[in-house]
Design brief:
single chain; mainly alpha; 77% helix
Length: 248
């Protein structure tokens, strides 16, 4: 998600767009690419920590007792596929940049001398998120039909109000990541630095929450130490990308 747009613009140049060649031949680009590489290393270290955690929990029989459906290999496969496909969101933002530019130009015409429109990317999200809504809605309907669970939406025996409130809260919280990303991207530009900072922050915060919520309880010090090393590596990558972007 961070590199491919730059590679694309290397073959199909566009005004104001960073190319991978330009990044390789500039100090700021080299620093950003180094930050991306360090981030990948941090993710690998965190993945190693997850493997150690799985091994420890299996040895302690904790997995078998708490979760009969636990399948680490399948989980890793789904996580990798999901991670690769998540990059398509950034491709959507890049493809819809002309829409955001029009919104930005309209705002600047009404607010001269005040910089870029902070919420210009929200226009693009309307189109991008229709894809996510469509696939999720269709799949949920298929599952409802297969499991005969349509009645759950109106089942008075369940805490319907709480369920709907927390579902709405989860959806709103999920969207806010892109809402704030769009604000930051309007300042940084949708180059490699913006997306890698976004992804690194997600991984960083998710792992920190795992420690806070004691998901790593009962595992060896080696596993926890490996996770901490991965977290620190990702923090370093964020600093490198931020520094590289400041040189631009």
């Amino acid at each position: 998600g961070s590199i491919i747009p730059s590679v694309y613009y290397n073959f199909f140049p566009a005004e104001g767009k960073d190319t991978i060649t330009g990044m390789l031949n500039s100090s700021w680009g080299q620093m950003v690419l180094l930050g991306i590489l360090v981030c990948v290393v941090g993710i690998i270290i965190c993945g190693r920590a997850g493997t150690l955690k799985e091994r420890d929990l299996t040895a302690n029989k904790q997995i078998e007792n708490e979760n009969k459906e636990y399948r680490f290999g399948l989980g890793i496969l789904v996580a990798i596929v999901s991670g690769v496909l998540s990059a398509c969101f950034n491709f959507g933002i890049e493809a819809g940049k002309s829409m955001a530019d029009i919104a930005n130009a309209a705002w600047q015409a009404q607010h001269p001398g005040q910089g870029n429109f902070l919420y210009s990317n929200n226009v693009t999200y309307i189109v991008i998120l229709w894809g996510g809504l469509s696939t999720n809605f269709i799949w949920c309907m298929i599952l409802n039909a297969r499991n005969k669970t349509f009645s759950n939406y109106t089942d008075g025996k369940t805490p319907l109000l709480k369920n709907y409130i927390f579902s709405a809260l989860a959806g709103t919280t999920w969207f806010l990541q892109f809402f704030f990303y769009g604000m930051g991207e309007s300042k940084l530009g949708n180059g490699a630095s913006s997306w890698i900072l976004h992804m690194a922050s997600i991984i960083l915060i998710a792992n920190l929450w795992g420690l806070v919520l004691k998901e790593w309880k009962g595992v060896s010090k080696k596993a926890v130490g490996t996770l901490v090393a991965g977290i620190l590596t990702i923090v370093l990558s964020v600093l490198l990308v931020g520094y590289g972007n400041s040189l631009k």
